[in-house]
Structures
1.
Amino acid sequence: MTSVLVVHSQSLHRLGLHMLLAAEPDLTVVGEATSGTEAVRVSAGLGPDVVVMGDHAADPNGVEAIRRITRPLTPLPASEPVRGGGRPPRVLVLTPGGHEGYAYAALRAGAGGFLPQDAAPDELTAAVRIVAAGDAVTTPSVTRALIDAVRQERPARTTERETGLDMLTERERDVLTAVASGWSNAEIATRLSIAPTTVKSHVSHILAKIGARARVQAVAFAYESGLVRPAA
């Protein structure tokens, strides 16, 4: 069962998201929040697997809220229960049109996926499951914004990022390139002739080495480091 926290400033939208997600047999809505600030507090108390953030672009605290929600958890004493299976929640951001730049900032803050606000119900529920599993969900417009931002930032970031890239083994670079190309773990396993469990292990090691919180940040790193080049 995947636990979800719904965040939206408008009660009608929160209700709609709540009802849609709660209707799925493998999803349970454990709480709601009306803002990024409240989402941080509620998430810390409930420890959901996924936080679905709605009208974040209008919230001046939205990016900081994502950063605080997804930051690594402080180790607890052995006598206390560990929330969320010992890892911080993953964040799925619902993006309105024209806010791709904000989506990039949210990605850098730790968001694990993006979906248009007008996505179909089955797309939303599928995205929640994908993000909960640690995979990335994004859209062509957000990907385009990521590439554009990399083109602008990379000259000033090259040395820092290349140092991080040097920490990866040749096989890890192969896997990261495949991840940045949008391949699933199963596709990577088939194309690189390795076991799916090995792919998962490589991805975990890559995230740890580059300091990424989710798979989608690894995609950003692949572009920023120059491992993957944006198409002209």
Note: The longest strand covers residues 27-33.
2.
Amino acid sequence: MEKPVALGVDIGGSHITAALVDLETRTLMKDSIKRSPVDSQESKEVILSAWCDIIDKAFKNMGNGARNVGIAMPGPFNYSEGISLIKDQDKFKALYQINVKEELSKRLDIPTAHIHFINDAAGFLQGEVFAGAAKGNANVLGLTLGTGLGSSLCLNHKTFDAALWNSEFLDGIAEDYLSTRWFVKRFNQLSGKVVAGVKELVEIVETDHHATMVFMEFGNNLAKFLIPIIGQHKIDTVIIGGNIAQSFNAFAPELIATLKGNGIETEIKISELKEHAALIGAASCCDLNLI
């Protein structure tokens, strides 16, 4: 019996990462990760050639057998057809309305039926549901907290982009309060000091009461954001990833206390797979038992 293996690919505005995934053990295959910077402002030819180069290199470790690819890609994108709809985001402008699936199929000599796309936020959560912190859970919310707010939902084992970043929240939208820039701005408002990001605040949280206040306020804001979503979708687990997740211990007490104060016992977990989540989630799209 041939081992069920697929290539997981994670595409961002500045990079491509690819790795072979053993779909049986739900793990990355040893030494198979390939990564390269890619300038998303480049021409169609430069971008697609760079992607194909990494995909080819990653497949070299597989040997013979059918080549299946799952690609986690930022939106807007027609994921079923493989057509890029990105045009106003300062990235991948050269790919607007290009059928990326057909382009990759021709260049890599892989049938289009063997190339699958998933939203990058959904790919992160799909990975955690397939092989990580949310394995076996039916209704899960995934949040990637960093420079922006990524969000995805898995309802009845189906994962999709939730696009909650611009939902109305407090005096603006969710991303105004649940991203790195909020930490920087709020700490400056309270202390008059300037920090580059959340990492610097974690380093001083034990000794600087303003930093402590910022993390407590963030935990409270995150709970307020989560309460209606958890109620609406009957979420049993929330998975948190992204750079801000590394400061979880600083904001978790206030987050969990506020949720419990509102009668919510939903589990809050940190991503287990971290940067590998989208790779494993994308590759899992090639598992015929899941489709």
Note: The two ends are 21 Å apart (CA to CA).
3.
Amino acid sequence: MKLDKPVSGGPCWTELGTSDLAAAKRFYEGLFGWRAETDPRQEAGGYTIAHLGDAPVAALTPLYQEGQPVAWNVSFAVPDADAAAARVSEAGGSVLVGPMDVFDVGRFAVAVDPTGAVFQLWQARAFPGAGLLSAPGSLGWVELLTRAPERAVEFYTTVFGWSVNASEHYTQWGIDGADFGGMVTMDDKFPHEVPAHWLPYFAVHDVDMTAADATEAGGTVLMEPTSVPEGPRIAVLRDPQGAMFGVYRAADEK
């Protein structure tokens, strides 16, 4: 079972903070077939929503704060952002921004887990989040990369009530029987300066072609297309401004 729409506790949205919004729009529109529309209101700060057809699937934004890294961020749906932010603090994390209202569309907060990974909380009002999940061109998987996996499990199960399906090689997160993400332990292969982080994976029709298209458009392949035994075919890419993201094709897709 996979998520095809936002559910409470699960990933509901992903946003790219980028140093060159116009270039990022061109790159991702070419790669995923997105149609990106920037909110014209000054108070929206250049917030840009990418669509597939009529469905919103992701956002692209300028960098709003000095020192903010170029990166994709993942949001998780909660019924009450204030209560969820309180659980974050009680479980050993920190709330960096908010909770605060975003026009009439929702209430959000930015938080960091005890292992250093930043994520967002989203309490929907007029905007529930992604109109598509797990369809080609949309968010389909989220992966936590951390150096303290046991602490991460304790934290996220406390804050969101996720189930944990752990094997020898990989740990998967789930909610109500649907696995939506996983966790990788950062070992010595990861440079010391790379912090713990959440990595979004977008579903695609062809991982190899997408990796080639990304390279041709000025991106970089960080992990070559690889088939996971009894699992998906995946690759990890970096866009021309430096943001990392994954792409995948599920093993059961024809």
Note: The two ends are 17 Å apart (CA to CA).
4.
Amino acid sequence: MIYVLPWLIGFVLFFFVPLLASLRYSLSSIQANAQGISIQFTGLANYFQALTVNTSFNRALIESITDVLVNVPLIVIFSLFLAVILNQKFPGRAIARSIFFLPVILASGVIMALESTSLIEAVNQSSMGGSALGTFEIENLMLDAGLSEWVVMYLSGAVDRIYQIVSQSGVQILIFLAGIQTISPQLYEASKMEGATGYEAFWKITFPMVSPLIFVNVIYTIVDSFASNAMTTLIRDTGFVKFDFGLSSAMAWVYFVAIAVILIVVSLIFSKRVFYQD
């Protein structure tokens, strides 16, 4: 309880009142006039407008959820794979770890703003255009190898999303690294004496021991992916560009409920499969 206390105090002091205010706004029509702001209760009108009238909300919501369902497995698998490699002993290991954590440091402020400039966009478009033929050839190669079309499209999509995957994997890599380094070396030595291969040691020792951290990283990645996307942009523009705070609050609450449902489902699924060492 004492570990949660700082968060609880911060939530009550800084977030609880705005949370109730946004719920009130979502059920009201807000008008600004010479006398100030008038708030008139309208019930669920804003929710109906968001779900049935607004042409962008449902599309942005589905797009955001789809991106999370696609990106989260890729980010977690990539992070675990890199953590296992970076845990090995090789020259320049510290530099390699720093390189993969750099996107976390640079994904803010001026560097983040540069991504929207014409120069960065031109570089991205050029790289995408140059890799189109290679991606097509890889798809044909995997299809000829007998993989299903769904798996091929998912893997080719992962190639197209490689920048996003790498830029969002820094924290997860550190968490996995910390977890792997806490595994007793005696376990690996005993498995090696028993004739286990590196592949078997990974699936029988490393993977079960870091399964709680896989759970943590999945939850963290879901929340992080939902924090900035087309849905949050739409909510912000509706409130602070169009000044429709009631509709914006309703969108935010629908979005919040959708995130909560996804987190609950994921938690129920993973909590039954996590291995905790006694």
Note: The chain is about 75% helix and 5% strand.
